[in-house]
Amino acid sequence: MNDNSLPDxxxxxxxxxxxxxxxxxxxxxxxxxxxxxASMRRKTPGMAxxxxxxxxxxxxxxxESRTPLDERPAQKSRTRKPAGDRLxxxxxxxxxxxxxxxxxxxxxxxxxxxxxxxxxxIEEEGFELRSQPDGTLHRVKITNKKPGEKTIRARRQxxxxxxxxxxxxxxxxxxxxxxxxxxxxxxxxxRGAVDDRVGQSAAFLSKTLGxxxxxxxxxxxxxxxxxxxxxxxxxxFSEIPGFPEAxxxxxxxxxxxxxxxxxxVIFCEGRVHYYESGSMADAAHAALTFARMGVExxxxxxxxxxxxxxxALGDVMFVEDHINxxxxxxxxxxxxxxxxxxxxxxxxLYERDVIDDSDRISRRARMRHHVGTLAAMRxxxxxxxxxxxxxxxxxxxAVCMSVVPEAIAGAYAGARVTALALIxxxxxxxxxxxxxxxxxxxxxxxxxxxxxxxxxxVIAR
Length: 461
Known about the structure:
Blueprint: H1 16-34, E1 123-124, E2 127-131, E3 137-141, H2 181-209, E4 215-219, E5 234-236, E6 254-260, E7 263-269, H3 274-277, H4 280-283, H5 285-292, E8 297-306, E9 316-325, H6 352-356, H7 358-365, E10 369-377, H8 385-394, E11 398-400, H9 404-412, E12 416-426, H10 437-446, H11 448-460
Parallel strand pairs: 4-7, 4-8, 8-12, 9-10, 10-11
Antiparallel strand pairs: 1-2, 2-3, 5-6, 6-7, 8-11, 9-12
Helix pairs in contact: 2-5, 5-9, 7-11
């Protein structure tokens, strides 16, 4: 072996290459140890108790300085020490485990057999308990009634009403009435009261006016000047027994007897509208009263609003048909089997001869006329734009708040009916002009004398 192949040793006799390798290993080990927590760092035998290396920094101990495994001290046991007194260090005595006291087992109670026999009958004074098939008891009153004998029940006693004097609770018969019987009875009584009112009014007017007229005229709002004929007697609505009182402005509420073309005629200045009392009986009272007095012709007038764009203020429309938008009529609630039949055919309600002769009658009165359909609204408000369009699409030419109840009542009583509608305003959308009752009344009064001539021509034909 050459001398060059031998390793070079330093003055201590160590291999320099091995020392450099050991230094590199120690450097790596130091980096690994410093990156870990203190609790996880591995302590090498070459490190002092304070954490610093006693020899060279970062150098591992030599192989000769390492302690053999058999000479190392035994590691401490990690078992938990028994709990003791922390201050004195004495060990607490162990307690004996507590055993739960077991209760003696009870034997299950034997099931009681279900009673299948009938329960004993418990009798009381005047009553007894009878067993039913389902096992329940029913309390039954003991009577001496024989089989087949009917039980007579005592009538209910009349008790004092806490809200005032009265007959007490009603006692109905054993047989229940059919559905609607009580309502029919109530309507018959009401209809009887209406007939009594009509009879009282007719008797008073016949005695006061002293005439037997064949024609009666009912005037609308602001048209009282059409009754300015000479002669005759008059009576106000408040004087006539059973006659409803008119409260709408433009309706004086007077019944006047005059002569037109040598014939006695009754003029009713004003009317009672349906919207005033909400009663069709009041709205039709005048027509029924005049029919009871023997009137054969009934002429009804009204101040109406135009729905037809061809109509102008001051024109008159002869009504040939109507559309009842009031939701009621004077025959509603009457007994179909009493008096004249309530199934009235209103196809030709308005007198056709007058309509056919309307051209000649209007020329004689010097008025522009039309023949059309009248729509009757309940009122008292005027129609909205949508309602006007609806009525126009339905075929109405003018609209009012009357005429229909009186026309139906007059036809029911057997009178011939003629209806005249004086156009006093336009119900069309004319730029947003407000409709007022004062304007209706003043416009009707302005054309009332022309309507007077027209009524005279209708009566004289």
